[in-house]
Write a structure and sequence with these properties.
With 213 residues, this protein is of the alpha/beta class. 28% of the residues lie in helices and 31% in strands. The protein has a single domain, classed as 3-Layer(aba) Sandwich (Rossmann fold), CATH 3.40.50.880. The strands form 2 sheets. Strands 2-1-3-4-13-12-11-8-9 form a 9-stranded mixed sheet. The chain has a 4-stranded mixed sheet with strand order 6-5-7-10, covered by helices on one side. The mean pLDDT is 95.
Length: 213
């Protein structure tokens, strides 16, 4: 049985994400325990790590830093240890070097880039909220098998502006091209919410549960 650590740091649809991961494990036919935690020692025992996030970049980063030793444990297990990592919405954005929401806030610096406000053309509303189609920018195991299941659910006003196209995994169009997913080595992140994206989100999470580096 594998263990997935779902980081509970006061930001994110934590219980919705947990339910979705359990359903995804069933779909993937993988025996899996989902553990909600903010304890560094628990990350050391986990096989995979998921960081959700809802709200403002600065608030979410502050929430992580407020948990003693949590950022250091994430660095040790994810960056040095190479454990598969999934960031969801702001959890994805926190992998950037810097976020520009509510001033400038340093991120984890795992994937080079910044999180900047979206400015869609054509008078489209901000935040970008609702269902939108994503397109794979490059092949990736976490995106396999989506097929026609390419419509996913977004809620955001800021987006990941990657420093390199090589870390963009999928895009969406909303008056501008937006990075819908980013990837690097054992890191994967979605700007959309797979836990709210029905069959497409479930398939993506099942892929993550099975993903080997």
């Amino acid at each position: 049985m594998q263990t997935i650590a779902l980081i509970d740091y006061g930001s994110g649809n934590i219980h919705s994400a947990a339910r979705a991961l359990r359903a995804a494990a069933d779909l993937a036919e993988v025996s899996c325990e989902i553990e909600l935690t903010d304890q560094p020692e628990r990350l050391a025992r986990a096989d995979r790590i998921v960081l959700p996030g809802v709200g403002h970049f600065a608030d979410c980063m502050a929430g992580l830093k407020a948990r003693d030793g949590l950022v250091e444990a994430l660095e040790n297990e994810v960056i040095r240890g190479g454990k598969p990592f999934l960031g969801i919405c702001v959890g994805m954005q926190l992998m950037a070097d810097i976020g520009l929401e509510d001033g400038e806030t340093a991120g984890l610096g795992w994937i080079s880039g910044r999180v900047a406000p979206i400015r869609p053309e054509g008078g489209l509303a901000v935040p970008h909220m609702g269902w939108n189609e994503i397109r794979a920018y490059k092949p990736h195991p976490v995106l396999q098998g989506l097929g026609d299941l390419s419509h996913v659910y977004f809620v955001h006003s800021y987006a990941f502006d990657s420093a390199s196209d090589s870390t963009i995994a999928a895009t969406t169009e909303y008056g501008q091209t937006i990075a819908a997913a980013v990837a690097k080595d054992n890191l994967f992140g979605t700007q959309f919410h797979p836990e709210k994206s029905q069959k497409a989100g479930l398939q993506l999470l099942a892929n993550f549960v099975k993903w080997t580096i």
